[in-house]
Amino acid sequence: MPKSSMLRAADVRAIVKLVNECRDLGDDWWAWHRHCIGGLLELTDSELGLAGEGAVRNEEIGMISPPAMLGRPGFEADPSRILEVIHEYTLVPGASRFVSNYFARWREEDGVALTNRDLFGDREWHASVDMQTVGQAYGTDATILCCREIARAGAGSGELEDITLFREMGRRAYTERETTIVHETCAAITSLMGGPLARFREPSPADLPPRARQVLACFLEGDSDKQVARRLGISAHTVNQYAKRIFAHFGVQSRTELLARWIRRGWTHRPPDDLRGRE
């Protein structure tokens, strides 16, 4: 890593602190996203930040979630206008050269964080439709974009977290160090999404096969593996295999973690009701 892009010890501590604070808010998608954006605004001296979940499939880029957005105090921007631009411009295939150029690089290096200067010369950037449309709507100039696949979504899923930061028009360009802060923060949070950090679309019992839902219902009622096996007429080994599938589905490592997350995130107010094979 070039010296200019190396993080300071204080940067590393700040990133770890921010990620841990996000974990404390992890059951609320909006809360932890807004906190993450707020932390990055401070760490990178930015005025405006957007973050959310998207997907890249068949060369097309789409959004899974609406964007969480936060501006620093004193930065005047019309949120409704910003969201209008996002929906009407940046997600139109090929409309944004910044996005198109970024994803050409992203396909070679997942998680790369790039600024407008990495993708355009200054004259080209200021003459671009991106700057004329998005920059004018936001009142911004310098931009960082970082997208990284969400690890727990599975390899090749195309599901990713998108973080975009902006500086007010007329301010300085981003440094390599600031770009690296965004890169490292995005890497840390995407490794936790679907586990300690809630996804926008949380896993549902309905996505499990019927037998796995029955095993899940028994777990939620406090049954041991032997009790589940007896109730459902299957072997303890089979129960263990279903348990692994259930834990992976909900992004947990144990029954204790499953029960705690089930309650905190309010996935449902009662166990699945399709239990069969009771004694």
TrEMBL record:
Pfam families: GerE. GO terms for molecular function: DNA binding. Residues 201-266 form the HTH luxR-type domain. Keywords: DNA-binding, Transcription, Transcription regulation. InterPro entries: Sig_transdc_resp-reg_C-effctor, Tscrpt_reg_LuxR_C, WH-like_DNA-bd_sf. Coiled coil: none annotated. It comes from the Bacteria. The keyword Transmembrane does not apply. SUPFAM superfamilies: C-terminal effector domain of the bipartite response regulators. GO terms for biological process: regulation of DNA-templated transcription. This is Bacterial regulatory protein, luxR family. It comes from Aquisphaera giovannonii. The lineage of its organism: Bacteria, Pseudomonadati, Planctomycetota, Planctomycetia, Isosphaerales.
